[in-house]
Amino acid sequence: MGLLRETSARENSATVLTVVLSVGFVILYSLAFPRTLGHELFLVPDSVASLSEDLTSPLQPGGRFFELAGREGYWDSQGRLLRAQPQRPQSVSSGDRMAWYDASLDSVTVEGTQGVLFRIKGQKYPFWSGGQLYAMDENRLGLTAYDVQGQLLWTKQFSSLISAVDSAAGLTAVGTLDGRVQTFDAKGATPGPFVPGGSRVPVVYNVALSHDGKRMLVLAGVDPKRFLMLEKGGSDFRPIFHKPLSENKPWPTWLGFLDDSLGYHEAEGAVAVSKVGDSSGETILPFDGVLGDVHFLTDRRLVLLMSGTGDRHTVQVDSLEGQAVLRLTFQAKEVLFAPTAKQFLLGLDQSLLTLQVKYQ
Amino acid sequence: MKARLALLLLLFGLCPLLLAYDWPATDVQVTRTFGQRSVGTSFSGIEVVTTDSALRAPEKGDVVFVSRPGSQSIQNLPSALGGFIMLSHEDNLRTVVSRLDPEVAQRQFQRGEPLGKVTVDPGQAESRHRLFVFDQQLGEMVNPLLVYPPLVDKKAPLFLDVEVTGEADPNPQSLFGRSVLPVGYWQVAIDITDPSTLLTGLSKEKSSEIQRGVYAIEAYLNGTELFNTSLDSLFEKGGVWFIKGMSQPLDKVLVDDKRWMLGQVFFNEGNNILEIVVKDFAGNETGKTFRVRGLRN
After folding, report:
1. Which residues in chain A are contacts of B62 at CB distance < 8 A?
2. Residue B39 confidence (pLDDT)
3. Which residue, among B102, B72, B105, has the nearest Cα to B86 in the 3D structure?
4. CA angle, corner B163, sides to B160 and B169, nearest 5?
5. How high is the ipTM of this complex?
6. Which chain B residues are closer than 8 Å to A222 by Cβ?
């Protein structure tokens, strides 16, 4: 019995020592290596709809048009499919507006939820950027901008093919294959081109404007391809940061702003997120296959990537610190991903899936 | 001495062929020429048809850009070009070959290496491609026919009409039907085209007539130059295109699909001689001389 008591006292001492050491380790770790606790995020399937059958219900404002796998349609704000039909020529959408080319009228027709909003005669290649409507010249050597009523804002011809267009805060940034970036205001006035240097072969692959129009990101050049960050000073943009990239794909790779203080660009097999004006570090978010879409949930500070190859795609959710929050892999050749903080709208070939988002 | 001269002439004759790039396909026929305007838009490349299944690099070059429509890549901008590749060559020229399914892995192509398989429209034996040449140093769009080997073309350009419009009389007067005009200032416009025969089908068994744009125009009034331009290159200034050497924008000079504005002339009292010469790129030329008698009202 005495022997037992003695053993028990020794065990108690060891337990106390273990607890003290553990607490000490946790305190030391927390002070020396602070980390944000991970997010918990769950997806609850809400509804599924087939895109293969035609559907023509009255459209409710607040939803969005979409194009997927040779079909086009409209989702309302609840994720309900209200319209589905074969995709029309050159159809492109932006929120609750859809533009397409009507060959019978030789016009671009722009529709809203209540029907046709306006037509633009003689244009064939419409596209949206930052919610603004543009028409591309058939050889990518000219660009025309329109306002929300379809009134001509400006039209410009270029001396090389247009490789990238982005729009924000009334500004349009245009990158061309001769290695120039030009910005135009709503009247088409331009302060003159910016020519990124530092590469053997000048070319611009992508441009992105911040939401407030005060900053711009550029991917440019061959040998090396470069990432540049520019800031507006007066009427023109000046570089505040640049670096060579190891990635050398000769086509536009992903680039943009998550919000006005966070920029991102596609790196080799990853998305690199960095603070604007802070070159000290960046967060690397690896993905598999080809990057297909990038979103940011501002209030949750979560980065959403859609990537994949062939018929296998992944939606991943990562924190800004690089922690993996969610991975969702599925089989589909064509994917459409439209997330909000409350629900993920997911188009997989001919199926449309609504997933409610739950956080813990 | 004669042998040396003959050798020099031979070398001089071969120069364009030695310097030329290769056509991206073997049986190329040009359907649309540099600067040609159709359906209201001026074209700064050339359009060709071929029955080849693949297109090849016209010259050794580094890949500058690859466009792959239908891919999930960002900035998938719409156009009629389809997939295309831009190559940068050692002489500061850049070539674009369009409407193909491009090779994406290569970063450099040797002359004659396949750039990709052609994209053929359904039901067509031939594929249609647009080719562009850019001078990176001068920032100009160059007439691709200056760079690619010459093609046979025996038909000369054709005058459709020559019209003048006066300050007092805004109705255009055709100089083919009228030779007496009031003394004064007149705007001269010409309607011209370059007819050509296009052979189609896999064994070129069919033919169709097409209209192409012209290459050069000269006009003189009483021996004084009124207009002289050739479509060698275009440049951009202030968001509009100009023919190199001209101060008027291209769309002020080439105002309709076949209509060129040559400028303003003053028809004096008595005889006025207006001479107009039009050439295609192969050197075929057509000239017209008009005697206009100026009368005082």
Report:
1. 201, 222
2. 76
3. B102
4. 155
5. 0.91
6. 62-64, 88
